[in-house]
Amino acid sequence: MKAAVLVARAVFPEVLEKLAAHFELSTNQPDAVWTQAQLISQLQGKQGVLTTGSERVDAALLAACPALKICANMAVGFNNFDLDAMSAAGVLGSNTPDVLTDTTADFGFALLLATARRMAEAEHFLRAGLWSRWRYDMFAGAEVHGSTLGILGMGRIGQGIARRAAHGFGMQVIYHNRSRLDAATESACAARWVSKTELLQSCDHLMLVLPYSPQAHHAVGAPELAQMKPTATLVNIARGGIVDDAALAAALRQGTIAAAGLDVFEGEPRVHPDLLALSNVVLTPHIASATLSTRRAMADLAADNLIRFLVHGQAVTPLNPQILNGAASA
Ligand code: DGY
After folding, report:
1. Is 286 known to be catalytic?
2. pLDDT tens digits, residue range 41-72?
């Protein structure tokens, strides 16, 4: 008998076709916004679900969906999963590492350039019909090439950004991470480990790429912003909640730092109103991995995890692989 699988959000039709060859498939192609209760109701009798970072899988959902065996996240981040509760319930979690690394690193760099060089602000000025003549200091921003980039969190995406910065833009790259990279990786990234204090105080641009965890909550708040240079820019492509958005808005308003580029927000899709009111911040709606080929690769990988697990009892990119030892095919 085919297992029952829910695809909780709209995805590529080709990916649905692939899944439909293996499963009794339920979908949400209109991309309806479900409450948690509606998600739980849709999950009744389902063995697998394809989620995005927007669907929360917690102990209450797991208790209410006893048939569930796998949640395949179409995202590398998985802070929407309570992985301990999933492991306790014998539910496998999977994510989509690697396939989005370079696309996301590209976007981090684009956001850094747009922020430091004031591109959004200048474009709004032009569109508003305010450009009357050239002026020597008009939208003069911060230098990117040759400056010092600080990276907080140095996983695959952080390393991709470091390589772009060092080899493409001649930047000095410093980083802080709980665990230091091995010497060969540091050398490939031309990156030097420093303490968090040195990182904050020395960088011209700070890029946040660390995964969200309760320990990382407000890793950058008022005390950290106060240590940065008044000319510094901050870029967050990691997760909302890593930055204290209210403190950041105050720092941007007061000139504690110069500018920020933000792709992720606390409580997104809501954005702190104080940020919306500022001109020295570039705001994008969580699109760092958004190219069609990368999003397709993410959807394919999530689908492959569902197929591999529910059909073959294995997984491609499991988050709690200990579950596989006790896994049974559907
Ligand atoms: C990820 O993969 O974690 C991106 O943030 C998309 O959600």
Report:
1. yes
2. 999 999 999 999 999 999 999 999 999 999 99
Quick check: CB of 16 below 6 Å from ligand 1?
no
Domain definitions of the chain by residue range? 4-99+292-329, 101-283
Smallest CA separation from ligand 1 atom 4, residue? 75
C-alpha 8/C-alpha 49 separation (Å) is: 7
Which residues touch 265 (CB under 8 Å, ≥6 apart)?
A: 240, 245, 271, 272, 275, 286
Ligand 1 pocket: which of 9, 289, 291 to mutate (most atoms within 8 A of CB)? 289
Residue with tokens 């720092």: 251
CATH superfamily entry for domain 101-283 = NAD(P)-binding Rossmann-like Domain (3.40.50.720)
Q: Given the structure tokens 């005390």, which residue do they identify?
A: 223
**Any idea which fold 4-99+292-329 has?**
Rossmann fold (3.40.50)
Q: Is 239 a catalytic residue?
A: yes
Threshold 0.90, pTM exceeds: yes
Work out the burial of residue 19: count CB atoms within 10 Å of its CB; fewer than 13 is exposed, 13-18 middle, 19 or more buried. buried
Q: Which of 164, 286, 295, 308 is catalytic?
A: 286
pLDDT in tens, 122-138: 999 999 999 999 999 99
The C-alpha R_g of the chain, in whole angstroms, comes to 22
Lookup: tokens for 246: 């209210």
The residue from 9, 117, 176, 239 that is catalytic is 239
For atom 6 of ligand 1, the residue with the nearest CA is 75
Whether 101-283 and 4-99+292-329 are alike in CATH topology: the answer is yes
Question: What distance in angstroms lies between residue 212's CA and the mean position of ligand 1's atoms?
Answer: 11
Q: Residue 198 in contact with residue 105, Cβ under 8 Å?
A: no
